[in-house]
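Here is one chain, start to finish.
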Amino acid sequence: MSGLVHIYCGDGKGKTTAAFGLALRCAGGGNKVVVAQFLKDGQSGECCALRTFPNAVLLGCNPSGKFSFRMSETEKEQTRQVSQCTLREAFAAAHDARLLVLDEVMAAVTCGFLTVEEVADAVQNRPAELELVMTGRNPPEELTALADYISEMKKIRHPFDRGIAARDGIER
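Its structure:
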């Protein structure tokens, strides 16, 4: 069985939701699943649900708990180091998994916490049967060239535009 590469991208809501939906489907089918979240704290509702599966591994990666544009240079360096470690740890944990999700890995690349080269190298050298999902806005061409699926979530309207913050259980 050959593992394929998915990219869920775009400016609309649903990238992480789609990735976690696939992770829940896979884990519910008895398969090992690894999810690594970049620039998130791993405390959202979907993370809590996934933790109930003994065959799921969840890695969070936001040491400062801040958006990148609010981080000091020291916090950015710490986040860079933790992101690189999390990427390596995710692929190591997924050596015997059916599915690996790299949630917001595109943001980690865009913000300079990971290089496109190190992500592309990890993707190309993963076990052949490992299904891989990468999420985030503006995927670089080097990563889209490696994808078998590319699904774009397009924002047409979003409550945030009216000042409505993310709500527990719905957007986080």
